[in-house]
């Protein structure tokens, strides 16, 4: 599969963004915050970063559609089960153990069922990605034959209506909670717009990037307007839910993704550090919430300033995740929890050549 520089950079940036988002939540739990400061800039930063998980998920289908425009190759699902689903299960079991009473086996099994099987934890995005894989396998060849406008508009209506109904229509929300077997955040209707949009981004990637780069003001304007709508809903309509599956996040996430692609391509941006983080991003996503709570005291030694605390927490958390991944990758057995990390595979090849 061909990895594009902008995809790697965006993946890394979104990984950092999700760690920063949870660092902010941790800050609000551990430090007394002035409500004026919260309303002046913290709330804007929180909402601006909420697009990180949707964009991370969108990236997976964009790459899949670009690299497999037709049918998926043989062994595709087996490879993803080993490299993506297995780490999800193993890390999910660790998270489940921490969330149980750690003494009673039945408590652990109950928590593990809710988290690993139903997806009731921050790793739920893996279940969404696998739904994308299945949809791509089932309907990708049909979507590729038709004009993108119809499917994109229809999927937007479905996703918007589903999330809006879940928030504002109690009977609909109760229906979903009662009959949908998994955690409500994994429902494919929440993410259908991202799937269809990402599918066509992958299909027309080169032409789309060329257009966005030439008309960079368009994604910039769309990002500004869609974010303004989010803040209007928050401040005026009292839609205060701080979650990545907000219905007004749909256009913002896609617009911001377009803007990042255009900026990186237009100005030929690159960063070896971000490329490295991109390689570790999946493991960071799965494990950062394990390490983050233990770093509170260390972060507080740098003071209670918002930016200092959040920056310190994000740096320490990402560093801890990468460090543990490095250790686990040394053994074939423990490597099952990390999935494939190309950065370490390349380093291993270089080392083997020198030896």
Sum up the structure in keywords.
mainly alpha; 16 helices; 355 residues
Walk me through what this model shows.
With 355 residues, the chain is mostly helical. The model has no long low-confidence stretch (mean pLDDT 94). The chain has helices at 5-30, 35-49, 52-67, 76-99, 105-117, 125-143, 149-168, 170-179, 188-203, 205-214, 217-235, 249-266, 272-291, 296-300, 306-328, 342-354.
- For the CA atoms, what is the radius of gyration? 21 Å
Largest sheet, strands/sense/barrel: none
Q: Decide which structural class fits the backbone.
A: mainly alpha
Unreliable segments (pLDDT under 50, ≥5 consecutive)?
none
Proportion of strand residues: under 5%
Q: Output the helix-strand order.
A: HHHHHHHHHHHHHHHH
Q: Total number of helical segments?
A: 16
Short description:
The protein is mainly alpha-helical. The chain has helices spanning 5-30, 35-49, 52-67, 76-99, 105-117, 125-143, 149-168, 170-179, 188-203, 205-214, 217-235, 249-266, 272-291, 296-300, 306-328, 342-354.
């Amino acid at each position: 599969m061909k990895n594009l520089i902008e995809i790697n950079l965006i993946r890394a940036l979104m990984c950092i963004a999700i760690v920063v988002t949870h660092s902010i939540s941790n800050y609000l739990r551990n430090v007394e915050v002035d409500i004026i400061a919260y309303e002046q800039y913290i709330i804007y930063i929180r909402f601006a970063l909420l697009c990180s998980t949707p964009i991370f998920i969108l990236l997976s289908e964009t790459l899949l559609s670009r690299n497999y425009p037709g049918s998926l190759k043989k062994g595709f699902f087996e490879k993803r089960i080993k490299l993506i689903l297995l780490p999800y299960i193993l890390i999910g079991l660790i998270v489940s153990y921490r969330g149980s009473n750690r003494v009673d086996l039945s408590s652990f099994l109950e928590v593990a069922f809710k988290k690993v099987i139903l997806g009731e934890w921050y790793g739920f995005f893996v279940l969404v990605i696998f739904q994308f894989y299945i949809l791509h396998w089932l309907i990708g060849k049909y979507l590729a034959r038709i004009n993108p406008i119809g499917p994109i508009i229809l999927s937007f209506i479905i996703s918007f209506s589903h999330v809006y109904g879940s928030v504002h229509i109690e009977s609909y929300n109760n229906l979903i909670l009662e009959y949908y077997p998994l955690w409500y955040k994994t429902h494919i209707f929440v993410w259908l717009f991202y799937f269809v949009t990402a599918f066509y981004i992958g299909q027309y990637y080169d032409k789309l990037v060329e257009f966005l780069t030439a008309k960079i003001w368009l994604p910039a304007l769309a990002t500004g307007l869609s974010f303004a709508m989010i803040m209007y809903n928050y401040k005026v309509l009292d839609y205060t839910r701080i979650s990545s599956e907000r219905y007004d996040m749909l256009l913002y996430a896609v617009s911001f993704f377009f803007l990042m692609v255009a900026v990186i391509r237009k100005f030929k941006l690159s960063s070896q550090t971000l490329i490295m983080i991109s390689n570790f991003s999946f493991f960071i996503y799965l494990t950062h919430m394990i390490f983050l709570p233990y770093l509170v005291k260390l972060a507080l030694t740098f003071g209670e300033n918002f930016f200092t605390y959040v920056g310190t927490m994000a740096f320490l958390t990402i560093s801890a995740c990468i460090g543990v991944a490095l250790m686990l990758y040394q053994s074939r057995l423990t490597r099952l929890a990390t999935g494939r990390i190309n950065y370490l595979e390349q380093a291993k090849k270089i080392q083997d050549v020198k030896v």
